Amino acid sequence: MRQWLHDVWYLTGRSVRVTLRVPLAVIPNLAISLFFLLVYNGGLSGISALPQFGTMHYIDFILPVAVVSGAVGGAGGAGQALVRDIETGYFRKLSLTPASRSALVLAPMLAGMMQLLVQTLLIIAVALPMGLQIPSGAVGFLGILALTAGWGLAFAGYAVAVALRSRNGQAAQAATFIFFPLLFLSDTFVPLSLIHARWMRIAVRVNPTTYVFNAMRALLSHPLQAAPIWHGALAVAAAALVTLLWAAGSAKKAMRTS
To answer: What's the pTM value of the predicted model, to 2 decimals?
Structure first.
């Protein structure tokens, strides 16, 4: 176990250093997240006066959208980093060392998750002067970071699995666009009670992103609502488990064929 933790630590550090060498690569993704925050809060904040919103400010309602959208960049970066290692032959060299095979796959995913956490802190810093409130204080703040980390890890697992299957950087990046249907087929901009199309309501209810949004919104409400938080945590845990298992299976196949 100690050796495995050492392998994960070392390889994650390497993945982070590779990301830091090209810091401009993370700016487009951060810009998209801030776009969601600034534009939608500016254009749609008036609907928070409707009774369905209660006392929640629209900036609190839309913040999870900006945070969760950042998972695309972290996931895409994790997939592309792994593809670069495969294309250069470095992944094969690592697979011939005593390093843990699971650490080889987990490291870029953790680096992507860490990138998302830093991005989330920046988004929250921008949202605070815009009126963001966290009534639950440290509990709500840490809860949002925990959900963000879990969702980032789940999405990175998906991107890494695609990268290992396709061995193509463009394919790994393109695969992250599955996020956009997940984003817009959810209660992204208005509560479920304001969505009247039956097919849309069904899509919202089966979409795991909905539960992540609502968990974060529950952490930003007063008093704290336990049920949405648990539902969101379960959705994140289930998504992470599925994608991690898929990534692990893809890694075994990649190592057999490399």
So the answer is: 0.84
